[in-house]
Amino acid sequence: MVETEEKHSKYFKNFNCWITDNTIRFDNLTNQRIIPEFINSINRLVYKFGHRTIILDFSAISKVFPFPAVPVSAYIQYFKEKEQIEFQFKDLPPYLRNINFSNPKTPSKSSTNRYSRILDKIWTFNNGDEVNLLVNGIKSSIRKSIVCETGILDAIDWGLNEVMDNVIQHSGINKGFVMAQVHQANKSLNVCVFDYGLGIYNTLKNTEYNPGNAIDAISLCVQEGVTRDKKVGQGNGLWGLYSMVNLNGGHLTIISGKGGLNFNQKDNKIYSYQDIILLNNENQATNINFHLNLDKNISIKEALKGYELIDLFVESLENERGQFIYKISEAASGTGTRQSAIAIKNEILNIQKQTQKSITLDFSDIGIISSSFADELIAKLIVMFGFFQFQNTFKLINMNSTIQAILHRSIGMRFAETYNNEV
Ligand SMILES: Nc1ncnc2c1ncn2[C@@H]1O[C@H](COP(=O)(O)OP(=O)(O)OP(=O)(O)O)[C@@H](O)[C@H]1O
Ligand SMILES: [Mg+2]
Question: What is the per-residue pLDDT for 217?
Answer without folding.
Answer: 98
